[in-house]
Specification:
five-stranded parallel beta sheet, 107 residues, Rossmann fold, alpha/beta
Length: 107
């Protein structure tokens, strides 16, 4: 089973990827600060602060995703540079907690 975690799933880019991933046969796990299950049928929603490494690690370990689509972004002026820490953290957490994760995409 192909499983994907999509961060920023209710955001500007993320919400448009969900249906395509479901149609492509993925089990889709959407992560968002503001989950909106109405966006797409067949998606499992997770309300999570992606800055919390412990919660991110627990989620990645429990899902055992084969793919990570990291689309979360922080747009407040002067604070968006901290996203590098989020990206590196999610990459490390998902890949290190699950040896079956074989593809990572970030926009």
């Amino acid at each position: 089973m192909k499983r994907v975690i999509v961060t920023g799933a209710s955001g500007f880019i993320g919400r448009y990827t969900l249906q395509m991933l479901v149609q492509a046969g993925f089990e889709v796990h959407a992560v968002s600060r503001d989950p909106d299950p109405k966006l797409c049928e067949g998606v499992l929603w997770h309300h999570l602060d992606i800055m919390d490494d412990r919660s991110a690690g627990a989620l990645c370990s429990s899902i055992e995703a084969t793919h990570l689509m990291h689309l979360a972004w922080y747009t407040e002026h002067g604070k968006f540079w901290m996203l590098a820490r989020i990206w590196i953290g999610w990459l490390a957490v998902c890949v290190c907690s699950n040896s079956s994760c074989n593809m990572v995409v970030s926009v």
